[in-house]
Amino acid sequence: MNTARQMIETWQHVFKLDPDRTIGERELEAVCQSGTNAILVGGSSGLTYDNTAELLERISRYKITCALEVSDLAAVVPGFDLYLIPMVLNTPDPAWIVGQHRAAIERYADFIPWESLIAEGYIVLNEHSTVARVTHAETSLTPEAAAACGHIADKLMSLPVVYLEYSGRFGDLETMAAVREAVGHARLFYGGGIAGAEDAARAAGLADTIIVGNIVYQDLDRALSTVGAVKARSV
Ligand code: 1GP
Asked: Can you tell me which family this protein belongs to (predicted)?
């Protein structure tokens, strides 16, 4: 097992911060010192080299693991602890499965820090999310179809992470349970619509790692309450 893999094995809770959104210094400090396991920098639109580098520089003032979820080659900034590489499993468009990846590797192979990369098998299920629109994801999957995607990532592709992505709304519990059942080796990430401690506890019951995004920008106290809710489950 490599170091990157070992790092994510300890993650129960992660805050996802979007370089294209504004966060004040006090809020950033609270998020970084909340007890979360890592900050994941990422977003589906508006990422640039400059806004990504600026957010990394601000987060680097705190003692917290900081990972970049790569969605736009133009916004790949050196200096992150880890780089998470999404591969969307429920899209008919190969560009979002391996196409962009191949282009990037052809261009930058000699500079890629392979030991810091973690591939994520994404299952994108909220049709109204930007990520679904951008990647043309087939979002109307039955629980069985979503579980099949989980099996593909977990067993056929041996990906280290399966990411159940409902970005913007809380997921369907039956689907979450079906994917949980399918994923045995990979770490199961869940993200989408976690708006407080109760949602966090529910999601943590069906995933290894929960990702909290939007609510950071809407209600910081509720966002911070999600950390305790997840950690409380493991004591
Ligand atoms: C988004 O999964 C994350 O990629 C988190 O979702 O923003 O809805 O919390 P929310």
From this structure: Belongs to the GGGP/HepGP synthase family. Group I subfamily.
Sign of the torsion angle spanned by Cα atoms 129, 76, 36, 184: positive
Compute the distance between CA of residue 202 and CA of residue 180 in angstroms, rounded to an integer.
13
* Residue whose CA is at the smallest distance from ligand 1 atom 3: 191
Distance (Å, whole) CA 137 – CA 17: 22
H/E stretch holding 86 reads: strand 82-88
Indicate which atom in ligand 1 lies nearest the CA of residue 191.
2
Domain map (residue ranges) of the chain = 4-233
CATH code of the domain occupying 4-233 = 3.20.20.390
Cβ < 6 Å from ligand 1: which residues?
16, 165, 167-168, 191-194, 211-215
Tell me the pLDDT tens digit for each residue of 152-165: 999 999 999 999 99
Could you tell me the pTM of the whole model?
Answer: 0.96
Encoded tokens for 183: 């994923």
